[in-house]
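Bench log, entry 3. Co-assembly request; chain sequences pasted below exactly as received.
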Amino acid sequence: MSIAIDLTTIWAFIIAFAVFVYVVMDGFDLGLGILFPLFPQKTDRDVIMNTVAPVWDGNETWLVLGGGGMMAAFPLAYAVLMPALYTPMIAMLLGLVFRGVAFEFRWRTQKARNKWDIAFTGGSLLATVAQGIALGAILQGIHVEGRHYAGGWWDWLTPFSILTGVSLVIGYALLGATWLVLKTEGGLRERAYVLSWVLLIAMLGAIGAVSIATPFLAVQYTQRWFAWPNIILTAPVPIAVAAVTALLLRALSNRNDVQPFFLSLALFALSYAGLGISMYPYIVPQSITIWQAAAPENSQIFMLFGVSILIPLILGYTAWAYWVFRGKVRPGHGYH
Amino acid sequence: MFEGWDAVALARAQFAFTMSFHIVFPAFSIGLASYLAVLEALWLITRREVYINLFKYWLKIFAVAFGMGVVSGIVMSYQFGTNWSAFADKTGPVIGPLMAYEVLTAFFLEAGFLGVMLFGLERVGPRLHFVATLMVAIGTLISAFWILSANSWMQTPAGHAINADGQFVAADWLKLIFNPSFPYRLVHMVLAAYLTTSLVVGAVGAWHLLRDQHLAGPRVMFSMAMWMATLVAPLQILAGDQHGLNTLEHQPAKVMAMEGHFQSHPNGAPLVLFGWPDERDAKVKYAIEVPKLSSLILKHSLDAPLAGLDTVPRENWPPVPITFWAFRVMVGLGFLIMGLGLLSLLMRVRGMMYQSALLHRFAVAMGPAGFIAVLAGWITTETGRQPFTVYGLLRTADSVSPLAAPAVGSSLIAFIIVYFAVFTAGVIYILRLMAQPPQPGERGPATDLPARAAGITPAAGAAAVEGAR
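Structure output for the full assembly:
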């Protein structure tokens, strides 16, 4: 059994990794959709779109890996969580449809371009809120009986899940703004700097609010974070958040174009680690642990074989694609 | 809108609806990605400008179609969990890994190289760009491999065991992946994708040839597409026949429904050409039959006995009329496609390929035929698998999520509204792109995109491409 336990923990980390890569990669490009209305000029919008057009599709593939991988490695958790999060999941998928097609459609029409810009923003916002709500709904606990979800189809909607929904909108918008600082120039970058300031402060507020609210959801979370000796392991998380924030503030004041985006990612990574600390070893908090949900060992081994070869390869050629389209994106530099 | 439907029927309707919309795009992009790779290879070898123009022309269409395939595909990967959670729990350990491998080996490959394929020609140079195109094309084929393996396992499960929690688990991965119907289904579907694309390419070529017989681009694409139809349509009919024999062996009830055989025929079964299958009376009304032909096709003997649905308990019958009619639509279109291929061959031999308005009109009319045939084929095989999700082992009614009908009904309505709005617009944009003939110096997708990497000036990039021609 010791092998099975190790494999399951490895798989928990692999799925967590896939979801995290999704969050950081699609996070900034959903963030751009959220910020779109603040950049009404066509040239600015074209540039913003072009900063992600070559890579958005790869970014969303991590979402498919997160979902498909979860069905493969933790089928019970997938089977319980998806019906529990039914409405947010459907909303997220529909949002992703709107924003995904907007990347291509807005270049194919003059008349309806504005309409697809609205679809881009609306879809991005809907998908983000839905993801944030789903996160909150998972954290606050899900009603399980036997191997099935046993709650109603509105259980996900609570003040806490709305808080996490709003928080994620702020977080993705911050990633989007710092991405624009990295990838653009001139007036567009100036506005992105201003937005980064505002959104960073809002993001700190959101992290604070969620951190304060989470321990009230369940005793388990409180003990996990504050009981001795756990606190030795958990205390570095808020300290690191403070340190990254300080660096981020400095980078924004020094007008360093590169650092803010990566420091924002670090802020996300720390918040994500915090979530992991709260949830582990549950995959459906308070009812199903990763071991209860795990697929049989031979499924785990079969996939681990592929993952250990393919994920490094995927990261390699994804990095290459980003490298090909590196540097600042400028308006009107087509080859026509 | 769906009063009186239970959650199972609604979940089935939702899967059928979202899947039918989705399959159209991969069927097209599998074929088109390969076609683009061929065009770019021909350009690299011959340096004829017509090939790169055609490449860029179809690349724009590919970009729109691929985007729609991606977003409708993400929906599919979550349908199993949202609407079919009992199925996901029970089959996750076997279906999940197949889909995870599809993501890892295919989706990432396609997505990772798509950006370079669409926007990167000036940035990476023609050779590396061709590698990117090739990777996308290979990715679409790998994707077909895994998803058809998963689907075939649901049709003809093999290589599995059942554990204490009632889950299917793998006993032998090779047997599971290469289950009995998989090779047939894979060949049949990939050929279908190639035919579908060739019919679209042929129709667009023919459309422009009807206006001007001398356009270089439309001539080349029309000729290439008609070669594909001529050569592959007969192969496809052969593959379909073999697939049918395989189905007869493993899913006899499906073939009974396809053939409309309610009764057993101990002395040779007739081929029902047309008719109305009536499930209540267990007979095909108004049937037009050819005696003993069905036994000849399925058993290669006029007098071979064939069992009918009277040997299958009623609760295990697939919906007969849908299976029966979808099958006829597919087969009918298959023969029409072969007819187009043969006519084009005749005109080619007589030197009338680019002049025959009859051939061009026929080709234009057949433009959507591949899509309809693909949909009809999938409806045949999926409806014919009912009332099971995993054939003979897991009933559809035992596969659904514990959701109330209103939840599934409202999400179905949302999907219908959004898909019609979004994909209608996408199809209109594609048709608009097709309405223009390819031009000399054709532009690629999203011409506003800055084609400038750090250190490489646009002029140098353009010069590199010019030099490469």
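Residues 388 and 394 of chain B are 6 Å apart (CA to CA). Strands of chain B lie at 160-162, 168-170, 271-278, 283-290, 388-390, 394-395.
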